[in-house]
Amino acid sequence: MNRTGYTLLVGAVGVQRLAELAISRRNAAWAFARGGVETGRGHLPAMIVLHTGLLVGAVAEVHLARRRTRPALAATMLALLVGCQGVRAWCIAALGRRWNTRVIVLPGVAPVTSGPYRHLAHPNYAAVVVEGVALPLAGSAFITAGVFTLANAGLLSVRIRAERHALQEAAAAAPVGTETS
Q1: Of 70, 87, 99, 119, which residue is the least packed, with the fewest Cβ within 10 Å?
Q2: What is the value of pTM for the model shown?
Q3: Cα(77)–Cα(140) distance, rounded to whole angstroms?
């Protein structure tokens, strides 16, 4: 894959992220209309900057450092990216209208335990971790892959703590005999 092809690949991922933000906004409105409670909003700007930085940084590194594609590495990383897209779609389908880029809990609603959530507590985050390595490495953007991976590890620790706290608070506030989301 040449630099132009790589730029188009990253652009396609960027378009997908914009589509996901539109889905997230729609789902947030739906959740709030049903009493959804948002927590952990403080880390959302950092997530937006980090994920935008991944896209911009990967393209910038490939062009500015004149990275050459390593065919075997690119093919492996593209296969991982395709797999990640499947996992992301599975997560969005399993959560339905409850899928969001924000931490919004619907009080009194049981957590989703179907689809990929039957196998892993945070399958979407697992896909993001793999994507954060695979997307830059598909173009040999080694620095971007490393920087994103380290920054994302810190951010995900904050994000997962916020989600767990929100779920625990919802469970504590729920009437006896109900489960929360």
Answers
A1: 119
A2: 0.89
A3: 10
